[in-house]
């Protein structure tokens, strides 16, 4: 369970409401593995949200928004003008959908510390244990770290023992 | 009002209206009210306006406007993010610098511009993942790498020349941290800036984005979504923290687009440190008339809500804080939206003309006392 109270509360709500259910899909389907055919993840690295036409309220990065995966341009707000910044970047592997990341958070929240090694193993390269930072790190499409989840001491102990 | 006898430009501390900031006393605390200078008010005087209905002076969205010692104004507009537009101090168009490409003097997406001593320009081009340094005559001097996911107008040069940037650094060492000290070559030497490094794809942007400004011994940073001023040293330790506890700025987790369902959330729009070391913070808040001044428009991503007039949807609360004591010096609510600081003495704001044209106003900040001395 996350140490941050807000995140803990969000996850508990998600559990109660079932909003982050994996929908019965296999764990393996949550992580895209490279198949050697794709050109790579297409990231539109920045995008804008406008509060006035043509006026930026904020900008956003694709991987920080609702979709992590391929072939998506900007997913929030208006993307004015040509975007010369969308380009294939890196191989395709890791989490390709933010909902799958949420599903992982739920699975993590209900897992006992002893279940963690098996849980991580089921995600392949998609989830790694960063021993130095005592966090779990989630890999997004292209190998970017798109999630960093601090662990409790007991969780760290179990992962360290099997690392 | 008895009269204006104590008229102060920002940074000019005279007549005992306010005192020079003192050195650090408490590492953590709440910004103290009431404001120290009860007779002080912040007044904006429009200095110039950028923009026209046609021609090279046309302006649109931008993350920044900067000013050099010659009074020249620089900005990069969203419709052409690979070119710097230069204006004279009176707002007249002077020239464009650069065009799209990856060669010397070419840019792809400029998200920040720093005017250094001697009017050297540093251009943060995230499209080419490099910082290009231009001479005052706009010749390319050198370039350095930068992280690709830099946040807009979010960097601070420390007194020793080191550069701290606010960026998403999605590496095992950098993920979850908002601030990154760069080496001379532009690699990340150290990541820091928060004790809470929990991020997911849904939260990493809001979690990361900061307004930053250089401080005496590090970098001041404030999240857009929480009014908490923090001074971080280059070794990654937090030296000082001032939390602002006010009913008009409840912290929140996620930046959301404008909506008819509720007032726009407050957001820190700008952070600056003046010549005397005072912190200046601009916070965008909802105007009391926000609901009746929205309009709905359907775009490529579906229906969106926009203001009919920016200044009737947003106000700005501009505050001056002593970073040593955490004392609020002065706070002023302005009936307009300020988009950021041009320099320590100026802010800029975006507005629509009655016929839909876009303009950028440059305002000079003045402290005015209303009490006879």
CA-based gyration radius of chain B: 20 Å
Radius of gyration of chain A: 17 Å
Can you write the helix and strand succession of chain A as a string?
HEEEEEEHHEEEH
- Structural class by secondary-structure content of chain A: alpha+beta
Shape of chain A: globular
Q: What are the segments of chain B in which pLDDT stays under 50 over at least 5 consecutive residues?
A: 1-16, 22-26
How far apart the termini of chain B lie comes to: 13 Å
Largest interface: A-B, 53 and 56 residues
**Oligomerization status of the protein chains:** heterodimer
Number of strands of chain B: 30
Notes on the protein architecture:
Chain A has 163 residues and is of the alpha+beta class. Chain A has four helices and nine strands, in the order αββββββααβββα. Chain A is globular. Chain B is mostly beta strands and 373 residues long. Chain B is built from two helices and 30 strands. Chain B has helices at 204-208, 310-313, and strands at 6-9, 28-30, 40-50, 65-67, 73-75, 84-87, 93-97, 99-100, 106-107, 110-115, 121-125, 130-134, 140-145, 149-157, 163-168, 179-182, 188-192, 210-215, 218-223, 228-232, 238-243, 267-273, 279-286, 294-299, 302-307, 314-321, 328-334, 340-343, 346-352, 358-369. In chain B, strands 1, 3, 28, 29 and 30 form a five-stranded antiparallel β-sheet that branches. In chain B, strands 2-21-20-19-18 form a five-stranded mixed β-sheet. Chain B has a four-stranded antiparallel β-sheet with strand order 4-5-6-7, with no helix packed on it. In chain B, strand 19 and strand 20 form a beta hairpin. The two termini of chain B are 13 Å apart. Mean pLDDT of chain B is 87; it is low at 1-16 and 22-26. The interface between A and B is large, with 53 and 56 residues.
